[in-house]
Design goal:
By secondary structure, the protein is of the alpha/beta class. It folds into two domains: 217 residues, Copper homeostasis (CutC) domain (TIM Barrel, Alpha-Beta Barrel), CATH 3.20.20.380; 132 residues, GTP cyclohydrolase I, C-terminal domain/NADPH-dependent 7-cyano-7-deazaguanine reductase, N-terminal domain (GTP Cyclohydrolase I, domain 2), CATH 3.30.1130.10. Strands 1-2-3-4-5-6-7-8 form an eight-stranded parallel barrel, surrounded by five helices. Helix 3 packs parallel to helix 4 and helix 12 packs across helix 13. The radius of gyration is 23 Å and the shape is globular. It is an enzyme of class 4 (lyase).
């Protein structure tokens, strides 16, 4: 289950975050850089105020990659009683030495390494961190105002980063000037937490005070742990990522149609030997009928984002060679139908370099029981690929 981390400056903002049901309280000084450290007395006071209601983390500051300097600072922050200490790992030949110097502390407090998408994310550091007892790793952006996480890290690389971190036994988080539209795009990769600061400060920017309404808006996009009363078969993280809240579907509202047209990517595809070992241009057209949840959509809670379709296609393509256009179309259709709100999808996959015109396939898939879907998804409906097997001749 993905958790929500909110970066706060002290006791007052921590209480706002707690009122908004944030999962992890993270202390920093946003005026002092990407990982500006809060004063030790502020950290201690906040730990006392939170009083175990939520885990508390604190950043160590924008420090030079010098093992003894980093170790001394982390020792100070660990002594405040926080649950996690976050340490920035900037590109340096000393990264492995810094990780080794922190191993004794890692036996006493959970350490989380912070890597930076805009400075280059070194996947080779992940096993090193795990080997020295780090609890987790996250990717952030170092230059605030210089773009969001997804401006610097392609979705396929985000997917690979999360998978590589988990393969090394590390808790994994994603941050970096994230905004509300980024949440449904990142949740399908199943990070352990998403981190926010600027998006919680409304129009004030990351150095302003966090705003209670902005916290609630982001919190609503990241579902909390399912209670025992809920069906264990339904992935509520996935449902929320696709814009669904339990009990919110009114069948009288009907459907909307979202679409992605003329989306062209280089793809390793083809059954012939001459098609192996290189890419060719493939055009994707996708149209999905989506159950509405309100007559007046106002924010990301009310929609199924077309960004999810494009991100999903990119992730599928990044997996490697696909023999058949039909296989690729089925994978895209299954991806879109993972959304409990999608009742029908049409996918066209068109290879553009095999002649004067395009060649390919178009398929239509429906949720097996679209009537039941309009009443609200069951556990079986929520599973990927729960679709009928129909083909049509033209896009609607």
């Amino acid at each position: 289950m993905t958790k929500m981390l909110a970066s706060v400056t002290g006791v007052e903002e921590a209480e706002i975050a707690l009122s908004g049901q944030v999962d992890i309280i993270d202390l920093k000084n946003p005026s002092a850089g990407a990982l500006g450290a809060a004063a030790l007395e502020t950290i201690r006071a906040t730990v006392v105020s939170v009083d175990g209601r939520r885990p508390v983390s604190a950043v160590a500051g924008d420090l030079p990659m010098q093992p003894e300097v980093i170790r001394a600072r982390v020792e100070e922050i660990a002594a405040t009683g926080v649950d996690y200490v976050k340490i920035g790992f900037f590109p340096s030949s000393e990264n492995a030495a810094c990780a080794a110097a922190l191993e004794p502390i890692a036996r006493r407090v959970k350490l989380v390494a912070v890597l930076f998408a805009d400075l280059g994310t070194d996947f080779a550091l992940l096993p090193v961190l795990a080997g020295h007892g780090f609890h987790g790793v996250m990717v952030d952006t170092a230059r605030k105002g210089g773009g969001r996480l997804l401006d610097h890290m392609a979705v396929a690389r985000v997917d690979a980063f999360v998978a590589a971190a988990k393969a090394n036994g590390l808790m994994v988080g994603l941050a970096g000037s994230l905004e509300a539209p980024d949440v449904p795009r990142l949740l399908p990769f199943a990070p352990d937490f998403l981190g926010f600061r600027g998006a919680l400060c409304a129009a004030a920017g990351r150095t302003g005070a966090i705003d209670a309404d902005a916290v609630v808006k982001i919190r609503a996009l990241i579902p909390e742990e399912a209670s025992a009363a809920r069906s264990a078969g339904v992935d509520y993280r996935l449902l929320a990522a696709r814009g669904y809240a339990p009990g919110s579907i009114d069948p009288t509202l009907g459907t909307d149609r979202i679409f992605v047209r003329d989306f062209v990517l280089p793809v390793e595809i083809g059954a012939y030997s001459f098609e192996h070992g290189h890419t060719q241009k493939v055009r994707f057209d996708v149209s999905a009928d989506v159950l509405r949840v309100t007559e007046r959509p106002e924010d990301m809670r009310h929609v199924v984002s077309y960004d999810i379709i494009m991100d999903g296609i990119r992730a599928i393509v990044a997996r490697g060679h696909v023999e058949l256009s039909e296989t690729l179309a089925e994978q895209v259709a299954a991806l879109v139908l993972e959304s409990p709100r999608v009742v029908r999808v049409v996918v066209r996959v068109e290879k553009l370099e095999l002649g004067p015109g395009g060649v390919g396939v178009e398929i239509e898939r429906k949720r097996a029981d679209s009537k039941a879907a309009r009443k609200g998804p069951s556990a079986s409906d929520a599973r990927p690929g729960r679709a009928g097997d129909e083909r049509k001749g033209a896009l609607p």
